[in-house]
Amino acid sequence: MIEVKPLWINGEPFTAISVQLPKTTLLAVANDKGYIMCGALDVALLNEKLRDRGIIAGRAVGVRTIDQLLEAPLESVTFAAEQLGISRGMKGKDALLLMK
């Protein structure tokens, strides 16, 4: 099952996406500038092979719900995210608010 729903954080609009797969659930919260995602996100790939795209993204591991993704510290972030002030250890929701 795929669930897509609007999500507001401090008055800012985002889209929450949950994809249920066998034995795992993919989670992401995005806006038109960037996104955070569960452990399935390959930040190294984005930083190395797709660096020229300037993808703004962060990865949190060990999360099973959108609420957990928002509260979890980011385990890794892309170079483009770092340029916005997003850093490892930052809560997901705080990182999203810097993606304006």
Automatic annotation (TrEMBL):
InterPro entries: DUF1805, YunC_sf. It comes from the Bacteria. SUPFAM superfamilies: Hypothetical protein Ta1206. Pfam families: DUF1805. This is DUF1805 domain-containing protein. It comes from Anoxybacillus kestanbolensis.
